[in-house]
Amino acid sequence: MPGKTQLRLGRIDTVAVSVVPHAGATLMSLLADVLGERPQGVPPHWRRALRAAAPAVTGRVVGPLFSPAYSQVPDSVTMTGTFPGAGIDAMFEELAELPPDRLTAELESDFDGRVPAQWRPVVNDPRRFIADYAAVLRGLWDAFAPIWRRARPLLDRETERVGVASVTGRLDAVLSGLSPRTGLDGTTMLLPDPNPVVADLGHRPVSLVPLVSGSRASVFSIDRDDLVWIGYPVPGLGRLWDEQPPPGITDRLALVLGPVRAEILRQAGRLNHMGDVAAELRCSPSTATYHCTQLEQAGLIVRYRRGRQVRLRRTADGDALVDLMS
Predict the structure, then answer these.
(1) pLDDT (tens digit per residue) in 60-81
(2) Which segments of 72-204 does DSSP mark as H helices, in order?
(3) Predicted model pTM
(4) Per residue in 149-194, pLDDT tens?
(5) Cβ(189)–Cβ(12) below 8 Å
(6) d(CA 313, CA 304)
(7) Same domain, yes or no, for 229 and 254?
(8) Is the residue at 238 inside a domain?
(9) Rounded CA gap, 100 and 123, in Å?
(10) H or E element: which one contains 61?
(11) 41, 4, 31: which is closest to 182 by C-alpha?
(12) Gene3D superfamilies per the record (predicted)?
C-alpha cells in the first residue's frame, strides 16, 4: 500500500501492549514539524514560538534529517535510540558525548557506504554537526518543557485507557483509532512512511508512545529485535495546547481567548469555511469544530450552511473585539 508501512500483528488478543510516555519521541515529532517541514499537526502559534527558540544553525542541521528522498536517521541521533531509556536530561548528555566516529560509521553502514549528498557535510565534520544538532534540540525542548510537564495527567489517563482495553479484549479499538494517519486493516497496522515496508510483529511486544506534539503526530520504529514502538497523539492534546500561550506571547487577543481561538477569530474573514480552519491550524475537523463552537457560543462568530459547506463569519461583537485588541 503506497505511503503506508504494513505491520502484520497476527492475533491481536495475543499482542503484549504497554504505554510508554517518552520525551525524546515527542521531541523528534516536534523537530519534524517545526523545523523539518514534515507536518505533525502542531498548531501555528506554537510552531512560530518553537521555531523562534531554535538557534541560527537550524538550516544545516535539519537538512540531512528531513530530506524528501530519505526517511532514515541514524539511531544515535534520534533521541529514541535507547528507547525506552532514561529521562530527557540523560538523553542530552548521551548526545553530547556521542563519539563523532560512531556517527560516521553508522552513516556509512546505513547507506551501504554510499552516503547521500545531504549527509556528506556531516561525515566531513561530524563533531560540528553533533554540537549544532544538540543546540537545536535543546532550544526546542527548553521552550516546550512546560507543556510536557502539564501533559502528565493526559499521559496517565492514556496509560489507564490502554490498560483497560488490554484486559477487556478491546485492543483492536485502541489500535484502529490511534491517529488520523494510522489504521488497522484486519490484523495489520498501517503506519505512514515515505519509504514503506512490510514487516511481521512476530513475538515482539508493542510499546504505544503517546506524543505531546501535534494532532497528526506519527513516529515509530519496527526494526528492533526486542520490541516495536508506535507514537501517536495523546488524546486530549488539542485542549492542552490551548490552555497556555507560547513563551513570550504578547498577543492581547490570544491572552483573552487562547491562541487557537484568537487565530480563528482574526482570520474568520479570510477562512471562509470549516475546511479552511482545519487546514490553517493543521488540526482535525473535530478540533476546529470545538473551537468554533466556543466562539459561536460567545457571540463572536456565526456559522451557516451554504450548499455542502459550513461557512463562518465574525459578528459585530467579534469585529469589535479584534479591533480593540489589535
Answers:
(1) 788 888 877 666 788 889 888 7
(2) 88-96, 100-110, 120-124, 126-150, 152-167, 171-176
(3) 0.74
(4) 889 999 999 999 999 999 999 999 999 999 888 999 999 999 998 8
(5) no
(6) 9
(7) no
(8) no
(9) 9
(10) helix 58-65
(11) 4
(12) Winged helix-like DNA-binding domain superfamily/Winged helix DNA-binding domain
